[in-house]
Amino acid sequence: MSVSVISAAMEQNLSQGSLIRRMFEAGIELRKTYGADAVCDFSLGNPDLAPPAEAAQAMKELAARMSEPAILGYMPNGGFAWAREKLAAWLSKQQKTPLEARHVMLGCGAAGVMNAFFHTVLEPGDEVLVSAPFFGEYRFYGQNHGGILKSVPCRRDDFGPDAAALEAAVTPRTRALIVNSPNNPSGAVYSEEDLKALAAMLEGASRRIGRPIYLISDEPYRFLAYDGIEVPAVLPLYDHAVIISSFAKNYGLAGERVGYIALNPAMEQAGVLMDGLIFSNRVLGFVNPPVVGQYLMAGCLGTSTEKALAVYTKRRNTLAAILADAGYEYVLPKGSFYFFPKAPGGDDNAIVERLTQNLVLAVPSSGFGGYPGHFRLSFAVEDAVIERSAEGFRKALRG
Ligand SMILES: Cc1ncc(COP(=O)(O)O)c(C=O)c1O
């Protein structure tokens, strides 16, 4: 009899998470066999740009203070007061909402902050709505804290949110709706009209069920919107809106784990929610981002992301031409750094398999909330990788 060393829930999680892991392992094998330069890996959403020059200056200044007592010591559990103030001032402009330090909290990446949020607001069995396709880890973040993710398919034509279908999915247990725009994996950017419709739907639904349904806007790709498209500010649209985001993608600080949450100050009992969040930050064990990350954030905050946008715009356009040439069908991404083309014949695993045989790594759409019939390509890769992928894409489709 085999002894179970992990819980049944974890066994199930590991088998569900295996799609992206399989791609990762396939990548290692292919590199070993054919050499790293032969493989075109579009599987990971790992930003490859260097942080802004201001990051180096922030590190020099911090290094010069290393002999100060407790310079790397504990701090209040929501982050340094000065870091929260600086973040609040920056977000006030971006979100068109006057925010103070008490309305924002720093945490370990958007992922850590979303865990802290769910830990704070979910009762066992509460439901969290999300439009599919979605970033697959949401399911685990909810489940970590007794929640159940309920997935509702997006609009077919442009991957926008289907407000009527989301409304139909509301039950007395609904606690939150996650929106992610610019979207991973679809590249959609939600219009102000769509967001207003969602806010109006949530107002009505909250009244009906007798408790507020939070609108969580997860927006780490806010800076990546192409062709002059504006990403609307979500905070002013709904009293119970919260922004969860990080500096992983815009300033290339993914490994430094600097994330945050901002609450709409108009929210009833925003102070109680913030107390709960800060407590959760502490007891979940990862607490605030490390001291170094907060100094890096402060140094980078407000620096222009125009150069990064130009780099990704060029990559998007190059890959768009390659895919079109090879005969793939796709909606040109309006934001983020992902393409989400249709799988020929609707079989996402089959096309990913054929691409892998041609040394091009992609992720089947089933990995994004069980959404069928597509595959995801991350163009957070060097231009050279995109340029040499053309033949692999062509051969995978035409043989
Ligand atoms: C949509 C989305 N949300 C959240 C995260 C997690 O971000 P972080 O690294 O800040 O935890 C990611 C990371 O890829 C993401 O794509």
Percent strand equals 5-15%
CATH topology label of the largest domain = Aspartate Aminotransferase, domain 2
Poorly predicted runs: none
State the fourth-level CATH superfamily of the largest domain.
Answer: Type I PLP-dependent aspartate aminotransferase-like (Major domain)
Bound molecules: pyridoxal-5'-phosphate
> Can you summarize the main beta sheet?
7 strands, mixed
What spatial form do the alpha-carbon principal axes imply?
globular
Give the CATH class of the largest domain: Alpha Beta
Using the CA coordinates, give the radius of gyration.
21 Å
Tell me the strand order in the biggest sheet.
2-8-7-6-5-3-4
CATH architecture classification of the largest domain: 3-Layer(aba) Sandwich
Query: What is the first-to-last residue Cα distance?
Result: 47 Å
